[in-house]
Amino acid sequence: MTGFLQGKRAIVTGASKGIGFAIAQALLGEEASVVICGRNQQHLQESFERLRQIAPAGRVSAETADVSRRQDVARLFEFADKELGGLDILVNNAGFGIFRAAGELSVEEWDRVIGTNLSGAFYCTREAIPRFARSRGGSIINISSLAGKNPFAGGAAYNAAKFGLNALSEATMLDHRYDNVRVSYILPGSVDTGFAGEPRPNRSSWKIAPEDIAQIVLSILRMPERTMISRVEVRPSRPQKN
Ligand SMILES: NC(=O)c1ccc[n+]([C@@H]2O[C@H](COP(=O)([O-])OP(=O)(O)OC[C@H]3O[C@@H](n4cnc5c(N)ncnc54)[C@H](OP(=O)(O)O)[C@@H]3O)[C@@H](O)[C@H]2O)c1
């Protein structure tokens, strides 16, 4: 830890668990100030308490928000304005999947998956861009998935959301690179979290650890301003054989 993010202000969405929590932890470890969000208030509060142990003196704060709801996103960014006084880094991490054949997906399920993984990232991006202008630049890191590259049966909504998130990332980069906005997206394979709905009794030895994704985020942020890492694919070295 070198404290290279001292003075930087970040929002990490979906940070009460899993990858988002590990990213928030890593940013705080490098002395950034961080606002986290999630939908479940109790989980968010528990995670906030854990993070506060590594980041005293108000460097971490938490606000309940569902990124698929525009009003929640507006409130989250207003909260961050008060807590952070500006914004330098946005990590669009909040996401989840419903895995069902296209013909069996309900419209409501489709809307929830697209709303969180794709529209949520857009709502946060459009709040972040004017704030970055006031900070003379900023970084957006979107947590996509190898499901944004490899369609699979049962993945219609999740695949579509993550393919879309990749496109949103690249188009936003082209729109705002001359405003000193850097946009990166990470496509992980299986990460050892409760993403698939299962509790996590034991860490799995073969999957990517959430902390490894957090290290990638730090590597992206460590690049000199002249250089932008656009897209990172990451997968388990030795996936479990079926
Ligand atoms: N785990 C994997 O294998 C894997 C692989 C590739 C990509 N990813 C991506 O990585 C990201 C994080 O996944 P994870 O594995 O860490 O999942 P996770 O352990 O289930 O954590 C997801 C986090 O997002 C929050 N969240 C979910 N929906 C939200 C919403 N609408 N608004 C705000 N917060 C929301 C959850 O809290 P609440 O439920 O309280 O809202 C939780 O804090 C996702 O975008 C996922 O698609 C995961």
Could you name the key traits of this structure?
242 residues; 7-stranded parallel β-sheet; 6 helices; Rossmann fold; alpha/beta; 15% strand; binds NADP nicotinamide-adenine-dinucleotide phosphate; globular
**Strands side by side in the biggest sheet:** 3-2-1-4-5-6-7
Helix content: 40-55%
CATH architecture: 3-Layer(aba) Sandwich
The count of domains is 1
Structural class: alpha/beta
Mean of all residue-level pLDDT scores: 96
What's the order of the H and E elements?
EHEHEHEHEHEHE
What bound compounds does this protein have? NADP nicotinamide-adenine-dinucleotide phosphate
- Classified by CATH, the class is Alpha Beta
Folded structure, characterized:
This protein is an alpha/beta fold and 242 residues long. The protein has one domain (9-197, 206-234): 3-Layer(aba) Sandwich (Rossmann fold). 43% of the residues lie in helices and 15% in strands. It contains six helices and seven strands. The protein has helices spanning 18-29, 41-54, 70-84, 107-135, 156-176, 210-222; strands at 9-12, 33-38, 60-64, 89-92, 138-143, 181-188, 231-234. It has a seven-stranded parallel sheet with strand order 3-2-1-4-5-6-7, with helices on both faces. Helix 1 (18-29) links the parallel strand 1 and strand 2. Helix 1 (18-29) packs across helix 6, helix 3 packs parallel to helix 4 (107-135) and helix 4 (107-135) runs parallel beside helix 5 (156-176). The protein is globular and about 45 Å long. The protein starts with 8 loop residues before the first strand and ends in an 8-residue tail after the last strand. The relative contact order is 0.14. Bound molecules: NADP nicotinamide-adenine-dinucleotide phosphate. Residues 13-20, 37-40, 43, 65-68, 93-96, 116-117, 120, 143, 145, 188, 190-191, 193-195 line the site of NADP nicotinamide-adenine-dinucleotide phosphate. NADP nicotinamide-adenine-dinucleotide phosphate is lined by residues 13-20, 37-40, 43, 65-68, 93-96, 116-117, 120, 143, 145, 188, 190-191, 193-195.
